[in-house]
Please model this.
Amino acid sequence: MHTTMEPTERPALALLAGSDEGAAALARLAVAEDWKFTTAATPARALRALRGDGAPDVVLVAPGGGCLTPWTELCRTVKFDRRSSHTVVLFLLPPDQGDRCGDVLNAGADDCTSAAAPPHEFIARVAKALRARDVGAFADDADTVIAALANAIEGKDHYTCGHVERVGAYAVQIGRAAGVDFRGLAALKVGGVVHDIGKIGIPDQILNKPGRLTDEEMAVMRRHPVIGYDILKSLRSFADVLPIVRWHHERPNGTGYPDGLRGDQVPLLARITAVADVFDALTTDRPYRKALPTDRCRAILSESAAAGDLDDRLVATLLRIIDDGADAMAAGIVTAPAA
Ligand SMILES: [Fe+2]
Ligand SMILES: [Fe+2]
Model:
């Protein structure tokens, strides 16, 4: 992850990759711009430079007149490996290979231009790619902050240690068994972590009250899905997660909150998270009772499904997962959560 405090519009260290006239052109450009740089004449050497200490943050590839494929493969390797995917990669193609720009971009390159273009255009493209990288790093940092915030809020609630991580893990297992696609599974994982983030707005004496809440206190507690929704609604990377945060206390029979949705009006991911949330509540100690034995949990889940408090098909899916004794979920039922 990019760690400097100031926005960067020039490479900290550029790797000039290419041979012959292409590399020479890049070197002239780097010298003129006073960039710190190193060079690699082959894709293999470039990859070694990227894997070593003090790796460059920008790779400028000028393949020259030779075969382009080894260089696009290098780009693919760099951009699809999590360790180096943040490295900016730009291609400077010979004028007669300008039609290969699509191949280069498909290999994950941040940008591509012709060697016939004026040097200041290439420099501007480098700066633009660096700005985009910094914005991406900022978004990653924002996600990390939100996850940390969600865990900090969980710390306010003395009885739910590890709850949010477990809800995410259970929801992913139910989702996978229910045929949810990859993007949905990712939302379930994050949704588990942040589903109760709105509890930041709930006073500690209500959150940690031993015993039943009064009607008034319950009304305050029931604000947490909308508070959480309002916290996250302007963050683009949480768009898929918002329905989970807002509607994880809705019920198929329409008696849930905050919007009183019914049946399939409650989005699938929110219904899945609701089942995972209840399951974790039953299998862990709460302010008002100890964790319940597995048979009792099964019975309560079945009763809830029959009453329309939980989605009956998803409860059936969860019960099937529990029945698969070798499944990690079953281990989760009998293993005390990590403190
Ligand atoms: Fe909640
Ligand atoms: Fe919860």
About this structure: The first helix runs from residue 20 to 33. The chain has two domains: 14-137, 157-334.
